[in-house]
Write a structure and sequence with these properties.
Layout (H helix, E strand, L loop, with lengths): L1 H18 L3 H11 L15 H17 L5 H24 L5 H34 L4 H21 L1 H24 L6
C-alpha cells in the first residue's frame, strides 16, 4: 500500500508541475524539512535549506513572470519541457523501496506524462485567452493556474490517493472530449 500511496503522491505533485514548475518542488521541500515527507535517498537534497531558498526564489520569479505580457508566452515555451522534467523528478523523489527500473518507468510515464498533459492544456487555454482577449485575460489565467498549483500540491500531500483519482478522471474526461471533437463530422456548406 505504501508504494501505491507514493505513486499517487507523485502523480498529484506532477499534475501541479503542469500548472507551475516550482510550486510543487517548494511544497516538497517544506514538507521534507518539516518531517512530513520522506524522500528517496538520492533526492534528499530537495529537503535542505539551500534547496528551499532556491525553490522559493524560483517560484517567486515564475509567478511574477506570468503576469508580464509576452514574458508569459516565453515562460510557456520554456515551461512545457521543464514541467515534464519536474514531473519526472518529483515522482522519482517520492517513490522508495522499488527497483530502479520500476521507479524510473513510473516517474517518466506517470509523472512526466501527467505533468506534460496538464502543461499542454494550460498552454492551449492561455493561447485561446491571448487570441480572444489580446492577452488581457492572461493575468486571470495566471492566477487560476497558480491556484491550481497550490491546491493540487497541498492536496497531493494531504490526500494523495483521492487527488490521483481526481487527476486520472479529469484527464480521461478531457481526452474523451478531445477525441469526440476530432471524430465529429464537419458540416459541409
Amino acid at each position: 500500500m505504501e508504494t501505491l500511496t507514493c505513486v499517487c503522491l507523485g502523480i498529484g505533485l506532477s499534475a501541479a508541475c503542469g500548472f507551475r514548475v516550482f510550486v510543487p518542488l517548494l511544497f516538497m521541500s517544506l514538507a521534507a524539512l518539516s518531517g512530513h515527507l520522506t524522500l528517496a535517498h538520492s533526492f534528499a537534497w530537495i529537503g535542505t535549506y539551500p534547496a528551499l531558498i532556491t525553490f522559493a526564489v524560483a517560484t517567486g520569479l515564475e509567478i511574477g513572470g506570468y503576469y508580464i505580457p509576452w514574458v508569459d508566452h516565453l515562460l510557456d515555451t520554456l515551461a512545457t519541457p521543464a514541467a515534464v522534467v519536474a514531473g519526472t523528478i518529483v515522482t522519482a523523489a517520492i517513490i522508495t523501496d522499488v527497483s530502479p527500473l520500476l521507479k524510473w518507468t513510473l516517474a517518466v510515464i506517470a509523472g512526466g506524462g501527467v505533468a506534460g498533459v496538464v502543461q499542454g492544456s494550460t498552454v492551449l487555454a492561455r493561447a485561446t485567452s491571448t487570441a480572444t482577449t489580446g492577452g488581457l485575460g492572461n493575468p486571470l489565467f495566471a492566477t487560476i493556474e497558480l491556484g491550481g498549483a497550490v491546491v493540487t500540491s497541498f492536496m497531493a500531500l494531504v490526500a494523495p490517493i483521492v487527488l490521483a483519482l481526481l487527476v486520472m478522471v479529469t484527464l480521461w474526461l478531457v481526452v474523451k472530449k478531445l477525441v469526440h471533437r476530432k471524430l465529429r463530422p464537419v458540416p459541409v456548406k
